[in-house]
């Protein structure tokens, strides 16, 4: 498989999706609810449509998993995982922290990650074994050696009301131990910002595969250590993710451990 060709197609799809998002930014006419908080807009749907069309025009035999339309059947060995708008709530409120996330898996292994923020025109990419880049320049994780000198980022899942106690305990532990905690609202960007050293660690619960598939590869290729909260290897079907620069990973695991019943 020519991964450079796959990468070019993926980037083209991301830019086309980004153009759709920019055309709708500040001009939304339809916002619908998938849940109490989870939103979907015509921008999500339009972005996903053109991304899928671009991929299938180049690779009609490939399969696609996308947030809004679900599973597009094709050869299971060639699978794209697409989030056409990660950060829909931010987008709906005209905040610039949103992104398009596109990953490609070959025989079950993610080998390409693309995350594009159309508002800032930052393009994060990674090919497995070849490092990670931001706008074609190599990136790597930070050198922070302790949580006390680290800036952290987290997110709250749409079903946070069901796990609010554990969320607040972990948030409080990390807030008190660190330089600060941010909440941007796009897990794909959170992972990319760990990859380029803007944040030193990211944790979140109850994410979906399309939220993390591309960002995990980008962060890993930049030197990040990524596990679940039990320090087991992270896979995109897991419900917990911790991504750090590696140097503060054990300290973060300790802060995220729930030592009492909640």
In short:
This protein is an alpha+beta fold and 262 residues long. It has helices at 3-24, 42-58, 88-92, 164-177, 187-195, 209-221, 249-256, and strands spanning 31-33, 39-41, 62-66, 70-72, 75-86, 99-106, 109-117, 122-127, 132-134, 137-139, 151-154, 180-182, 201-205, 225-227, 240-244.
Q: Might you state the CATH topology name of the largest domain?
A: Fructose-1,6-Bisphosphatase, Chain A, domain 1
Give the full name of the CATH homologous superfamily of the largest domain. Fructose-1,6-Bisphosphatase, subunit A, domain 1
* Biggest β-sheet: strands ordered side by side in the sheet: 4-3-5-6-7-8-9-10
Distinct helical segment count: 7
Describe the main β-sheet briefly. Answer: 8 strands, mixed
Which value, in Å, is the CA radius of gyration?
18 Å
Q: Per the principal axes of the C-alpha atoms, what is the gross shape?
A: globular
Task: Give start-end ranges of low-pLDDT stretches.
Answer: 35-39
Level of helix content? Answer: 25-40%
Number of E-state strands:
15
Strand content: 25-35%
CATH class of the largest domain: Alpha Beta
In CATH, the architecture of the largest domain is 2-Layer Sandwich
**Class per helix and strand makeup:** alpha+beta
Mean pLDDT: 92
